[in-house]
Amino acid sequence: MTTIENILEQIDSVMYYPILIIVMAVAGLYFTFLTKGVQIRLFPESIHLLMEPPEDKQNISSLQAMLVSTASRVGTGNIIGVSTAICLGGPGACFWMWIMCIIGASSAFVESTLAQIYKRKNTDGESYGGPAYYIERALHAPALSIAFCIFLISTYAVGFNLLCSYNLQSTFAAYSFYHETTTPIIVGAILAILTGYCLLGGGKRIIRLTSIIVPFMGISYVAITLIVILVHIRYVPAMFIEIFTDAFDFLSIASGIAGSCMVYGIKRGLYSNEAGVGSAPNASASAKVSHPAKQGLVQTLSVYIDTLLLCTATALMCLSTGVERSEEVSGAPYVQNAISTVFGAAGPIFITFAMVLFAFTTLLGNLYYVDNTLIFLNHKKEPSQLFMKIFHILCAIIVFIGAIIPMNAAWAMADITMGGMTLINLPACMLLGKIAIDALKDYEKQKKEGKKAVFIGRNIRLVEDELDFWK
Question: What is the model's pTM?
């Protein structure tokens, strides 16, 4: 296991530095420049569109599609991922998360707009799509779209679910009953059984209940972090000095860049908000809007909610308390120690309860993307019930394995599979970026003329034979 762990960590290090950091920065800056900072310039318009009623009450609205993608983004990464980045990389990781979030939001706009343009219509009139569809249809690269699908399945059925399961069981380490061998096995077994039960058709009440509770839990989590920060308000100025001092300590960064605050901030930020990864476009394609640029603008908000709100809440809460940070407490213990400074023994219990809900909904949400991808690989048809049952049983087994593997192996596996998706999706978006930018220009032109923005492919010189939904 140690040998496998070392190999995964080496691949992870090379993939993110220098390859992915350069690709993500170049793509984000390229889109930011060509769209004239759409993610900042049209921020008020994004909020306005979020409140816009759906085109058809029978179809998914922009808000609903954004909530689906946000639900997938918001999860254990907002708590455990941020904690790990600060403990292993340093407080400057928080700054680099913010930078990549703002830059990456432009990539989120482009990928979601492309997903809308090249989405397809099923027999019920509903739409579906994602990177696999725009890579296949617009780039005419079916082999590349298949490769993307393989990485997506590896990411959401394996990498992310291994990590999600590990993160959940790690929250129990704060309690006296925790045993390094037996507790992970017990937690993993319970989580695997619940996941398998829901995936195999049961547990609809469980899914419905968690979908209601999780938004309230997210709001409660932010409220709790604000209370902790306010209690330690006198330390906040020093905390920000520490963040910026560490972020701009380039001598320290250069001496060990793979383990620096910059790399950890970028890696954990990408894991959390998924901007440019190619996951959110699968949800974006399902929204019924009059113009693709609308959904692209709405999706930039999802990135901000995830990183600038939830990830920042975790980072500032932990840093303001001044509790010890080290590799030994990286993950759940660091967050639990921070919250305990105000709420005592109740703090770790709240984090555990939040993690249980976040982890469970993340596990099921991840597999929503996988199901759509399996349909694409099966010649746009749903796989047989037998295949899906076997597949879902394997998914439940992966959840169990995730609880008992080492932390570094879990993170490396998630990073590598997610990195593979990003390295296919972002270059594809750059090649197709002009189409999304032309769609944005068309949207802004119609808005300036006082019209309701309606998309017609030929207005941006698209051949209608390449489109499906917008014919």
Answer: 0.88
